[in-house]
Every structure is written in structure tokens, then in C-alpha cells.
Amino acid sequence: MAKVRFLPVDKEVQVRGEENVLLLALRNRIPIATSCGGSGSCGTCRVFVKCGQPRGEVEQAMAEDRDFKDDERLACQIAPEDGMVIDVAQDDL
Hints:
This protein is an alpha+beta fold.
């Protein structure tokens, strides 16, 4: 089963089913802000991905509109991968 590590809390969690990184974090009581329910329209669930797949179409449009850094992503749009490291630190935003 795939495992994802969240920073700065340094907590490794197991992925269940088809959940995205936002749902994975919330299920494991790792706080990530969200106001659109995970549709990718609000941009509040921003995290930093240390490794992972490239942005999808919805996420790329948001990143270009809001000038995201290269590793800045939307948690609701990321499919967790084994070994992925997610930094939820908000002071870097």
C-alpha cells in the first residue's frame, strides 16, 4: 500500500482507495485549508510537493493565474503516490 509523508508534522500515512492528497490529509487530521470542497476552484489547499506527478489541466490554469512556484500544488488535485513528500507549511506561501 502506498505511503505519503507530510511535513512539517513528519507524519507518514497510508493511502486508501482513490482519495486525493487533500482527503488523505484531512482523514489523518493533518490540517489543510479548503473552501471549495476539493473542486480546484478556490486555491486554498496549496501545498508543496517534494516529488510527484505533473500538474493536471485544472491545476495548471490555477498555477498560471496565481503565479505558483514550481513545487506549489493544489492538494485536492494530486493523486497520492508511494514515497511522495507533501509540505503543508503555509508560511512559505
